[in-house]
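hi!! sorry for the late reply, been swamped w classes. u asked for the two structures so here they r. pasted raw, havent cleaned anything up. first the sequence of the first protein and right below it the tokens
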Amino acid sequence: METHGKKELADEVLYITFLKDGTFIESEEGTEPSEEKWSYKHETMTLTTGDIPKKILSINEKELKLSSKMDGQVMIVTLKRVE
């Protein structure tokens, strides 16, 4: 995660699954998974989970890098694929 130009490693491992039916599943070790809806708008390269739009900065077969605004701050998050 990156805020104000500073990179930070997450304190916990977060597992995220995007299903074809528009379901987004987020889970951490020791907690119940939560389900939300996700959508993608190709024209703006925007991925929305819940009510939060996230700009796709880069994507390949190994990682997805997103930018979003939370509490007035821009956050950049890199998600890495788990095999």
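now the second protein. again sequence first, tokens right under
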Amino acid sequence: MRSNILVLVLAAILLSGVMPAQAEHEWEHRYVIEGKVLSPDGEVMRWMNVKIVCDENDEDATDPSLCEHNIDREDSTGFTGGYKLVLHIHSTDHGKKILIDVGGEKFEHFLDLQGEDGQASEEDRYVIDDLQLESDPGFWHTLTASLLLVALIVGSIAGLVVKMRGPKSSTESRATKSRSSSGDFIDCPHCSARLRSRNAAAHMLKVHRVKDYEIPDEDA
């Protein structure tokens, strides 16, 4: 028992030394660009694809040394018009160029890993970069974005209505199941017979000598 406790204590000590070092190491390889995509009029552009351009045959594309870890990095602006690209960047990549594509328009971004003070820090790895388009993406994109917005609103309302109504109670569910499985049957009040409603009067007269029998409302 004591040996198990000692092992756990040693493991905790080792992890306490490794975790901060690992967290400190991670930010040195992370570079985040985020912002909004704007129309020529300054309005947010919804559901625009934002991606890194990597093309060995294009001299204006992203620096080839950055594409190994970032070739598939992309995001969509969504409802708010915001995007976020999380990139894998080394400290030696300072000053290199990233080319960003938004709806066919290209935007250059140069890595600044040292900031104004010339010292690399974690805050230099988070950059706000709003991308304003020079031309409107056109009617079809506006229509698609509008339809997606309507679908989002309708879906939210439908989900709210379903949530407010809630599931049927277990008693109601059992009663419904009983009616559907039994069909148009009732129980004889004088014996254990299971009768169809239309045959109940004849059964009561022949078997129990009860004339003018009427099915109670609760069994109808």
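hope this helps!! also noticed smth abt the second:
The first helix runs from residue 2 to 27.
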